Amino acid sequence: MKIIIVGAGEVGFNLAQKLSEEGKNVVVVEKAPERLKRVDEELDVQSFHGSGTSPSVLKEAGIREADMLVAATDSDEVNLISCLLAKNLNPYILKVARVRNQEYIKEKSLFGEEMLGVDQVINPESLMVESIVRLLEVPEADEIIDFVGGKVRLIGVTIPTTSPFVNRRLMDAGTAGADILVGAVARGDEVIIPRGTDKLKAGDLVYLVVKPDNMRKAFKTFGIEEKPMKRVVIVGADQAGGSLAAALDKMKISTKIIEKDVERCTSLAESLDRVIVIHGDGTDKDLLIEENISDVDVLVSLTGDEERNILISLLAKGLGAKRTITRIGKLSYIPIVSAIGVSTLVSPRLCAIRAILQHIRRGKIISVAPLKGEHAEAIEAEALETSDIVNTPLSDIKFPPGVIVGAIVRGDEIIIPKGNSMVMPHDHLIIFSIRDSLSRLEKLLTVKLEYF
Amino acid sequence: MHVRTIARFNGLLILFLGLSMALPLAVSIASGDGGARALSAALAVTAASGLVVFLATRNREKPDPVLNHRDGAVIVVTGWVLAGFFGSLPYIFSGSIPGFTDACFESISGFTTTGASILTDIEAVPAGILLWRSQTQWLGGMGIIVLSIAILPYLGVGGMQLYKAEIPSPVVDKLKPRISDTAKALWKIYLVITAIQILFLILGHMNLFEAVCHTFATMPTGGFSPKNASIAHYGNAYFDIVITVFMLIAGINFSLHYKALKGNPTVFYKDPECRVFLIIAGLFISMTAIDIHGTVYTSLSESFRHAAFQVGSILTTTGFVTQDYEKWPSFSQHILLLCMFLGGMAGSTGGGLKIMRIILLVKHGYKEIFGIIHPHAVTSVKLGGKPVSDEVIRSIWGFFILYLGLFVLATLSMSLLGLDFVSAFGSVIACISNVGPGFGIVGPIENYMGIPLIGKWVLMFCMLLGRLEIYTLLVLIIPEFWRK
Known about the structure:
The complex is a heterodimer.
Chain A: E1 2-6, H1 10-21, E2 25-30, H2 33-42, E3 46-49, H3 55-60, E4 68-71, H4 76-89, E5 94-98, H5 102-106, E6 120-122, H6 124-137, E7 143-147, E8 152-158, H7 170-173, E9 181-187, E10 190-192, E11 205-210, H8 215-221, E12 231-235, H9 239-250, E13 254-259, H10 262-271, E14 276-279, H11 285-290, E15 298-301, H12 306-318, E16 323-327, H13 333-339, E17 344-346, H14 348-360, E18 365-370, E19 376-382, E20 403-410, E21 413-415, E22 428-434, H15 438-445
Helix pairs in contact in A: 1-14, 6-9, 6-14
Chain B: H1 3-20, H2 22-31, H3 36-56, H4 69-87, H5 89-94, H6 100-111, H7 127-142, H8 144-151, H9 157-166, H10 179-203, H11 208-218, H12 237-250, H13 254-261, H14 267-270, H15 272-292, H16 300-315, H17 330-342, H18 355-373, E1 382-383, E2 386-387, H19 390-416, H20 421-432, H21 453-467, H22 471-477, H23 479-482
Antiparallel strand pairs in B: 1-2
Helix pairs in contact in B: 1-3, 1-4, 2-3, 2-7, 4-6, 4-9, 4-22, 6-7, 6-21, 7-11, 8-10, 10-11, 10-12, 10-13, 12-16, 15-16, 16-17, 18-19, 19-20, 19-21, 20-21
């Protein structure tokens, strides 16, 4: 599969890296020589110097034989023009565009077959807001990933010292009820795919596969305290901050939003009902104390400046905020920032990368979510009739090491598999896998006929 | 520096090299030339050494790390030196070239596609060994490392570092998204053109063995011949023409051949470097032909035939000979000397400075003069309508200076060893540009046997410098490289 990526910024670069590691043929088109140099040196992809809005550059990059174009530059206009050109040069190509401007996104017909023919529009900011809202809905979880269109959830929870599971073998503690499965355990830097004989420790980040209705039950069995979600402070009221405030407004959560820009404050105050709009600087300690930061359940720092966001979150923690959610841009910051105690991070770029990867993998593997540190992934895949795993007891299938089937979703039913469970065609599977086994797993899931 | 990975890669390389001796061995067995014992011993020693290193450096726990620039340079240089060493084993074991230095010289001259030989009576050497001699050139032409990248599946990003360190071009042109696919594509083209040339030679009634040997030396612009008198042995116009054409083909960037075979034959005309290359070749051939017509040869067709062969041979740095060009008029000899410096196109199997560098140097020189007339003018050096970055220009100037500097240094040391003026620079330019025959005592009908021992090592170093395009080899000698 040949994929052309326009733009080698943070999103384009990371996509190119992931896709080429997965064995796709990737071509990158980028205007800035220094970014191109980084691509050439660090990735096994072909690169072309030039603009994604130039037909001759796209032709040179082989748009005619390509299967997909991902327009991932920072500029909506460049992305849209690239898609238009791609459609013109190769009518069969799949197109994914990163678009941020809400006004464009509202014009649905713009992306239709008659106009640009964009197969998927990725809006990083709104994806990020969605993921923050999910986190706020379930404040007990550190991470929430939806699978099978929301029928199954993967939640990441931190095991407290008081949990009945601490230092007991998973099999002795009994499954936490029939519908809950421990899929992966992140301890320090490693991610473990646990077996029945493994023990959990306090402080582990445990990934559970649950039905959304069973989440409360899961928290109870793992001894995780319910955390109230009543007061939220948002710092930064650009597009993402504004739409998050609007979403929280609808959820009837008491929300304050702090913004430096007066005009922005005024327009927000006019459009929102309950949300208190505060004009001020989020790094101002006195302002935070004045707004009772110590009573706040979550502070979300969403300004456009990532270093500032990190400082605001640290300051809020110091002043007694129970939890912070921090927006960052550079993906390389994630491990460093986690180390200094700013735990829950969101990134529009990471959201965009995940969404685009999910789109590309449509088919055999429906969705992949990297777990903490990216050593392991949770995968949603459809069991195809012709694949090896169908109609055989799970215990007889030779899975690569570090791979576990977390759940089988058949229609509305969710099965937590045992050794004798069988996978039927068209079941959706939630599979946990360490990264090294990913390609072998992918082969296992592949249709046998494809080899002929 | 990832020592384990470097050793592992080299182990694999040597293993492959050993296995590739099977072809000459088969020829030796079939022809009963007496070289079979030596070749099988060399095969066993080489393959076993490679296998032992490869297995000893295996580590299941840790995956192979991604190679960086330094690892790339170290792998390429050690790979070439080791190939040179193991490649000399068939000569030593068979007794064809008993001395260690001489055997290494022949082997390195082979892999670097120089074609400088120390053999006086080539025809006395067993056929299998002669095939091995040509085969080293063929392997070295497209590059043993590029071949490894094509064969080894696990080199991803690291492969790019290796590729850059070996490919003879100031700019790297990836034909396919993946480096291993690019390497595969290049080798496929190389194989196809090789097969075509063998076919053409056989059509002219050259026997299969000699056709293969000569093709294996033409495509990499190497120049080893299984005949004492080189191509002059045949005195056949058809062979001269076929070989001239294929030498010129080998002097063209293989990416262009790839694109042409993909159904775009106009690339040869559209590519600015290729145009200049063909114009230079045409111009030099005509000037030489006119110069030697009447003075050396009587008929015009004969003058053209020999001028074309000799200019083609030297310009592409192949080094086949049909005529003793030292007997030609001074002007023609100077053209050939100039050809030795110029070399083929970037990305071809030829050596020398490369046409692309010359074009860019001239253009940059013009830009500087232009800047004197219009001090405030904003200009950029362009090649084929595309601007060339200052970084590339700087690296080319650096390359040019180092090339000349090292040429001067090596010439000085050769004269210190007692070589006369012409032979000293003639041998150095012939080796650093990977041509083969030079001037003076290493002229077209002489060989390198008479060079003193130390001189041979100096020349071997020059050959590696030329093949690895100076930077890759030189960077390893700089102490800063080894500092942690």
